């Protein structure tokens, strides 16, 4: 498939829930609209999840701008579940596309969006509090060689919930996380298009 933009998106769909099916369809529509080549894999066990990502890493991504991996499955604190109930840890998931495993993606964005519960608890309500303006900033004193980058650089890992808590969904409309993600991607793209259309306009000072 030839596309205008060189980008790839992998959708891993591991549950037959109606709301998750809605999310998968919506993600596929949105990423195709954005110009991505979309690969959809369903009902993968632990080995198959890792193999799909290894196959993706084995490709030559030299002409590619970025890679997106969306995972929709059941999950636990430590990772996502395959259909066999075995866990793929989040570290195992993202390391498959690291520069050591996939050199052609070095210094290119690798985006992971994970829709999965990470426990069985419901999150309690919280109320915002203002922080002191003179609060100390945190810095790292670790020395980093100038000619190197961290192995996990250029990653974005976004999850639908935090450790120990469930992720919420609506039966007919899908999960809250995927609904918001698709809406945000479309909105940001439209804003970017609008901004680019305005760029050629130049204003000249009257002589």
Automatic annotation (TrEMBL):
Keyword match Transcription: no
Signal peptide: 1-17
SUPFAM superfamilies on file: Caspase-like
Similarity comment: family membership: Belongs to the peptidase C14A family.
GO molecular function: cysteine-type endopeptidase activity
Gene3D superfamilies tied to this protein: 3.40.50.1460
Species: Sinocyclocheilus rhinocerous
Name used for this protein in its record: Caspase 10, apoptosis-related cysteine peptidase
Domain Caspase family p10: 145-186
One Pfam assignment: Peptidase_C14
Keyword set, alphabetical order: Apoptosis, Hydrolase, Protease, Signal, Thiol protease, Zymogen
GO cellular component, one term: cytoplasm
Residue ranges constituting the Caspase family p20 domain according to the UniProt record: 1-121
Gene Ontology biological-process annotations: apoptotic process; protein maturation; proteolysis; regulation of programmed cell death
């Amino acid at each position: 498939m030839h596309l205008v933009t060189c980008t790839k998106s992998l959708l891993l769909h591991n549950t037959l829930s109606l709301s998750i099916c809605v999310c998968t369809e919506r993600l596929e529509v949105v990423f195709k609209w954005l110009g991505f080549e979309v690969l959809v894999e369903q009902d993968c066990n632990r080995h198959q999840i890792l193999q799909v990502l290894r196959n993706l890493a084995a490709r030559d991504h030299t002409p590619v701008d970025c890679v997106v991996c969306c995972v929709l499955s059941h999950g636990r604190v430590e990772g996502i579940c395959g259909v066999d109930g075995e866990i793929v840890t989040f570290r195992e998931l993202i390391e498959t596309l690291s520069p050591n495993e996939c050199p052609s993606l070095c210094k290119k964005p690798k985006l992971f969006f994970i829709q999965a519960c990470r426990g069985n608890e419901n999150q309690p309500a919280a109320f915002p509090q203002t922080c002191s303006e003179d609060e100390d900033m945190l810095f790292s004193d670790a020395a980093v060689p100038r000619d190197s980058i961290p192995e996990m650089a250029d990653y974005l890992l976004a999850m639908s919930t935090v450790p120990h808590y469930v992720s919420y969904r609506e039966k007919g409309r899908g999960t809250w996380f995927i609904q918001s993600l698709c809406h945000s991607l479309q909105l940001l793209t439209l804003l970017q298009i609008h901004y680019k259309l305005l760029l050629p306009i130049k204003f000249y000072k009257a002589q």
